[in-house]
Write a structure and sequence with these properties.
The chain has 336 residues and is an alpha/beta fold. Helix content is 31%, strand content 26%. Strands 1, 2, 3, 4, 5 and 11 form a 6-stranded mixed β-sheet that branches. A 5-stranded parallel β-sheet has the order 8-7-6-9-10, sandwiched between helices.
Length: 336
């Protein structure tokens, strides 16, 4: 399944999965974007069908990466994210510092405006894409993307509502709209009359940005990008380690090791991964030191799905790492 995961996250920017950690269906894994199940080795029966429904519901309800419980069963849900895209609709004076800060923060930056002279390389040298066109053509010119952050900064409420009605019909990680409370209210009322629900409109961050009192374009841009960073980091996400991805794409057998829970000051977070080849070589990291050594040593003997907990403190029976803390690790055997 990992090949599928990396293929989809490269294309869409976001993927969600879930796996049973215990119970009759331990090892059963679900990939939401393809409605695809894999593993467990259990023949199709009522118990497996019920397990699939529980697993699917857990994946769709979870917001980030972590362990969730369904009665007496544990499920590890992961949200993979990669290549975030910042899509700025409107090429005015606020857009320029937003694009600059976005690029600095690692976003792929797209700027669109209906005025050709507002979307030039001179005005937006840091943008990856500069698109000229009426905002009505947004859906034609900018493909849907799961890990997209939309910043609507057009010059009027007509442009705002034109963008909003298209964005609300596609996936997004963030949607913010600039403007006074009056401008925002007019746009909202217009969209409600068109049939959009209060719940849908409540997803819009408007007025946009954190309230830090900024007045200058650069200050407003800081408030916008600060809110985007806040939303981006609201939940744990699984970092797509390029070394681990490359190891999976080699198409050889091995064991995937993932931190599924952590307590204290362990060096790596939930979702961190390491791939251990059958000959003991490894790619990626779950924190280095003794815990990584012990996990890698155990990985070559793993045949199914299992979890282990490692104590990192200075007490008797632990791994003696100065940082302290506890990590719980998932082992998944990947065989060809």
């Amino acid at each position: 399944m990992y090949q599928k995961i990396y293929d989809i996250v490269e294309k869409k920017g976001r993927v969600k999965t879930g796996i049973f950690l215990n119970g009759e269906n331990a090892g059963l894994k679900y990939l939401a974007e393809e409605d695809y199940f894999e593993g467990s080795g259990t023949a199709e029966n009522a118990l497996l069908q019920k397990g699939k429904e529980v697993l699917k519901n857990a994946v769709f309800q979870a917001a980030g990466t972590g362990v969730v419980k369904a009665k007496d069963q544990e499920i590890f849900v992961e949200t993979y994210e990669k290549n975030p895209r910042l899509i700025i609709l409107g090429g005015g004076h606020v857009s320029q510092p937003v694009a600059e800060i976005g690029r600095l923060l690692g976003f792929h930056v797209t700027v669109m405006d209906d005025r050709e002279d507002f979307v030039t390389k001179e005005r937006f040298p840091q943008a990856d894409e500069r698109i000229t066109g009426d905002f009505e053509t947004l859906s034609e010119k900018i493909p849907p993307y799961e890990n997209a952050y939309y910043v609507v900064v057009t010059r009027g409420h007509l442009g705002d509502s034109t963008c909003a009605r298209q964005i609300l019909k596609r996936p997004f990680a963030y949607f913010g709209m600039i403007g006074s409370r009056t401008k925002v209210r007019i746009t909202r009322e217009k969209l409600l009359k068109e049939g959009f629900t209060e719940t849908e409109l409540d997803q819009i961050h408007a007025p946009i940005g954190l309230p830090i009192g900024g007045q200058m374009p650069a200050e407003i841009a800081v408030s916008i990008m600060a809110e985007i960073v806040q939303e981006k980091n609201r939940y744990f996400r699984t970092y797509c380690d390029e070394a681990v991805e490359a190891a999976v794409r080699c198409g050889v057998s091995g064991t995937m090791i993932t931190i599924i829970e952590k307590k204290g000051s362990s060096p790596r977070g939930t979702g961190s991964k390491m791939f251990v080849f059958s000959d003991g070589r490894s790619a990626g990291s779950i924190g280095g030191g003794k815990v990584e050594f012990e996990a890698a040593k155990h990985a070559v003997n793993v045949r199914n799905v299992e979890t282990r907990t490692y104590e990192l403190g200075q007490g008797v029976g632990d791994l003696g790492m100065i940082c302290g803390g506890t990590v719980r690790v998932l082992f998944e055997r990947i065989a060809l």
